[in-house]
Amino acid sequence: MSDVARSYDEVPYEGKPLYATHPDCLAAAARLRCIPAADPAQCRVLELGCGTGGNLIPMAYTLPESQFLGIDLSPRQIAWGQSIVQQAGLRNIELKVASILDVDRNWGRFDYIICHGVFSWVPRPVQDHILWICGNLLAPYGVAYISYNTYPGWHLRAVVRDLAQFYAARFDDPATKAQQVRAIVQFLARASASLDSPLSRYLAEEVPSLAEAADYYIYHEHLEDTNHPLYFYEFMTRARAAGLEYLGEAWHHSPLDSLPDEVRQTLVELSRDLVDLEQWMDFIHSRTFRRTLLCRAEVPVERTPPPDVLRPMYLTALARPQSPEVDVTTPQPERFVRDDGTGATTNVPLLKAALVALFQRWPAAVPFSELLESAMAQANIPRDQQAQAEAVLAALLVRSYTSHLVAIHTRPFPFVGEAGPLPCASRLARVLAREQARVPNLRHHLVLLSPEQRQVLAVADGRHRREEIARAVAVAADQRGPPDVSAERAQALAPLSTQQVDEVLRQLARCALLEA
To answer: What is the pLDDT of residues 291-342, one digit of tens each?
Structure first.
């Protein structure tokens, strides 16, 4: 067994859904640039370094007509994933122990190739083969996703990594190593705070993120022997040599619009092409990580798409209005805020109306045509101005997409907005909830369940009415409670009433965990 495989066998990396890698996200990014990417509902996907399959398995569950193949060096992680595949009854996914270097032309073509959290953590020959795979096995209009650590931001983070390795070397247990890394960074941040140096400020910024990070993340991010950040332009030089071209970022797009006009204009003048411009943005923002999308070099990429590109698309909200009541009929500025507290302000009535409508319909995906009609009505725009309004709204929503105010989809996700007479929760979520409180929802996001939600979820299999679910939950609470709840907590769980079950079902629907 290789050192890499042994490392991940000893400290498994938590598998979880990553929406930025989902075929819907990749297809939307391509189609916004006028590339006819494969329908996510009928595609072939390869994930390199799939771990436990925590990202790939939920895709296979919600896209039963597509085919998924995941490989990883860690037998322990693959075995766990294969067990979940079997329990969930999935027939469109294969997880197997294999090296990235094993992949050759005999594996066939793939519409989407995913390589998350691997590229910076493997030697140069493996990196080169990842790019070879993408350059040779992508379908004609395929999309590859590769994430990697980037300079210049990683220059400072490398100091944290160096001190983490220096101090953690004296401990043997991986969990102890991770705990001690948190402690030493926190100590050094306090010790150097009075110096007010660039490093002391960076250490202070790292303390909260390390406090929230899981042990496996700290171990593999800072304590692995291999970690090779690189500049974006260096990555693209190698990608182009492999016959690939830059499509864009899957997430955290470069926020060019947020810069002052004169700065933006100067950067454009300094840049020979889009890669240059993106590299300048990395310098300005001290970027540490990228999720880059690539296509075949011969595929034409439309950087300024026509207004009708959004007509077949769906949209969901990523931000909420800051004001309880939004004036959508006047140029009164309104701020829309994301969950992390950041956001953007607009005074365009049509866009304000659209963003409010998406927030009100969340988590549902709204067809663009329906959103246009609703926004025009709310903003009091006459129907004889529809063509002009469509062009304006499409352009503004594409900018909102790069600003992370909205997500754009090729199709709605397969969840229902309310529980029917016989509520049915995701079968995959029910399988995973037997052993863990964090489960993937039907929008390819991770959801943390409360003990009551896990109890209701376990029984909501489409065969029981609310009163039957309430009785089953009461029996389960009396017997043992969920697996991670102590005996004392299980005894404290009062049997749920039918009304309480109904409220939990509404919560599960809001979390996109119920299906038809």
So the answer is: 999 999 999 999 988 889 999 999 999 999 999 999 999 999 999 999 888 8
Confidence band, pLDDT 50/70/90 cuts, at residue 356: very high
Cross-strand bridge partners of residue 94 = 69
* CB 514 within 8 Å of CB 426: yes
Taking the C-alpha atoms of residue 130 and residue 439, their distance in angstroms, rounded to an integer, is 30
CA distance 441 to 58: 8
Residue 224 phi, psi (nearest 5): -70, 150
Per residue in 419-446, pLDDT (tens digit) is 999 999 999 999 999 999 999 999 999 9
Sequence-ordered strand ranges (E) for 42-101: 44-48, 67-72, 93-97
Within 13 Å of residue 215, how many CA atoms lie on the same side as its CB?
A: 13
Q: Measure CA 171 to chain center.
A: 33
Q: Are 515 and 425 in contact (CB under 8 A)?
A: yes
pTM to 2 decimal places = 0.90
Query: H helices of 292-404, where?
Result: 349-361, 368-378, 386-402
Spatial distance between the Cα atoms of 287 and 281, rounded to a whole number of angstroms: 8
Q: What mean pLDDT comes out for the span 505-514? A: 96
CB atoms within 10 A of CB 400: 25
